[in-house]
Amino acid sequence: MKKVFALVSACLLLAVLLPCQVFAAKAEVTLKVHHFLPAKSNAQVLLIQPWADKITAESNGRIAVEIYPSMQLGGKPPHLFNQVKDGVADVVWTLPSYTPGRFPITDLFELPYLTASAEATTQAIQEFSETYLKEEYGQVHPLLFHVPTPGLFHTASKQIKTMADLKGMKIRTPSAIVTQSLEALGATPVGMPVPEVPQAMATEVIDGAVVPWEVVKALRLHELTKFHTQSGGSRGFYTSVFLFAMNKAKYDSLPADLKKVIDDNSGKNLAQKIGKAYDQADLDGQKLGKERNNTFYTLSTEEVHRWEKATLPVIDTWVKKMDEQGHDGKKMLAVAREMIKKYSKD
Q1: Is 27 left (phi over 0), alpha (psi -120 to 50) or beta?
Q2: Mean pLDDT for each consecutive 10-residue tract of the chain (346 residues)?
Q3: Which member of 141, 157, 187, 282 has the lowest number of beta carbons within 10 Å of its beta carbon?
Q4: H/E run at residue 5
């Protein structure tokens, strides 16, 4: 009886594994995807894994994809762009702002009170990239530019209701632009990649952090903080630009039909879907905070106007910097705003 059971078990196992083995045997290209968040993060669940599955299916198994979350291929989050540029990884998902000053035009979409929903702003930056970001990312093959919903304040022991409440508070910042904005509001910015936030909160290195709701679950911020403060109105305090990019030489080496599979799952073909998914993830993140009975606060219209006025110099500085580099900063700012408005529902 034991022999029969063992034989049946072996047959069942073979039936399960054989299709995978046959599929894997067809692979002509294997893409290694590297990113800095856990495997259960929205980055992998909403974007990277579905993209990998579609690429494999639509290439009839000729493209295989291996995903390495949490920096499993080595290095730190700021190294990811160089890793895909140099071929250490074939594809990466990262934040350009982790290398300050390297992508100054991209900083435009992180300026204060510019961003709308993830769906609208992702489509806007994707369209914007086709005209203004080609040179900035010429060393790689961009697959998608996208953003989460606008970031907000998550704090442990103090509710932020006014600009005065921020004075002296140590707030984690994701980028140079957000650092400037926080300084303008009177806070003390502390820069760090997002995976370091939970430890910094737990050890009181920081009093709070600005991150979007969608990443709260991966960081357990709903457990580490008690208060959440967001801006009112149709535009958020800030957002972060994410880059999903492929090694240029790897893309160029693909035959035309496999390039088409990649192209069909890139850029405009992906932007709206991913934007919608991140908007939904924002609601899921909020739900976690509500289930723990955390305190939510939305800034009044008058207070938002104060914050907008206080952070105007950040925008002016970016425009001036662009002009000094030979670009038309005011025009690019106007184009970005118009594109966000075009895709927004307000």
Answers
A1: beta
A2: 42 41 68 96 97 98 98 97 98 95 97 97 98 97 97 96 96 96 98 93 96 92 96 93 98 98 97 97 94 96 97 98 97 98 88
A3: 157
A4: helix 2-26
Which amino acid is present at 17? L
- First-last CA distance in the chain: 69
**pTM across the whole model:** 0.89
d(CA 318, CA 58): 42
Complete domains list, the chain, with CATH: 152-238+282-343 (3.40.190.170)
Task: Write the DSSP assignment of 24-70 as a string of letters.
Answer: HHH-SEEEEEE-SS-TTSHIIIIIIHHHHHHHHHHTTTSEEEEEE-T
DSSP assignment, residue 152?
A: E
Nearest to 108 by CA among 345, 272, 325: 325
- Choose among 32, 59, 24: nearest CA to 246: 32
The SS3 of residue 317 is: helix
The predicted structure's pLDDT at residue 5: 40
Could you tell me which of 340, 346, 109 has the C-alpha nearest to residue 233? 346
- How much is the pLDDT for 233? 87
- pLDDT number for residue 139: 98
Single-letter code of the amino acid located at 342: K
